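README: folding subset

This subset contains proteins for which both the sequence and a predicted structure token string are available. Records are stored as plain text. Below is the entry for Deoxyribonuclease-4 (273 residues), shown exactly as it appears on disk.
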Amino acid sequence: MLKFGTAGIPINAKNTESALEYLKEIKLDAMELEFVRGVNLKAEKAETLAKNLKITLSAHAPYYINLNAKEPEKIESSIKRIVDSAKIISIFNKKNSENKNVVFHSGFYLKQDKDLVYEKIKTNIQKILKIMDENKINAVLRPETTGKISQFGSVDELIQLSTEIDIMPCIDFSHVYARSLGKINDYDSFSNILSKLENHLGKKGIKDMHIHISGIDFGNGGEKKHFPILNSEFNYMAVLKALKDFECSGTVICESPRLEYDAVILKKNYEEL
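--- output ---
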């Protein structure tokens, strides 16, 4: 089964604490902590929230990350932001092992050879994993499929990474659609992605998923901005049907501007398939 939730605090909640109660009330099952500009949830507060947590939590590391930056200091700060995010989610993980996923955008190609970029990003993720291991930080790193053509993070790149080091991908189907300039937008295309995940990562590839869905707009360079799902040409129903037919498990996070409203639509449509 899939759990459904929001990217960040829902529209009708004031803070993280009230969000966790509210989402349960409207029968959603998950929330992704959005550390957009920095990891703003203190460890002490996370400890308190974890005590009565009734939904599944994940975290999205800050957006200012580029593991392929030319400047060493930018790479170090990127590594720190991901590690700091993992530290917080690991507090929730102690209470429930489903609270484990840390999503992040890996970086940009910067007009460099893609194979070299791949190796540099892989090396830097390995550094993060080493820090986590040394500090007993229990979390799963999930680089996300990205929506812009200039960004590292195609489905194939992330699947390959996941076969070589101890990570799992976050599949943002809306980003995949935008990155393909609208070409990947039907049941067969989405099913092909799920088949790849299963073929290369085993059953875990489809039974332990972390997914993003929203409406989205794109231009020549890929993703432009997120839309409400009903105002976008992105075929979210085909994604839901593919996920159902493959009997996928995990979490679906809605990044639509309508947050919980669209998350409820996604969950309702999925359950009715």
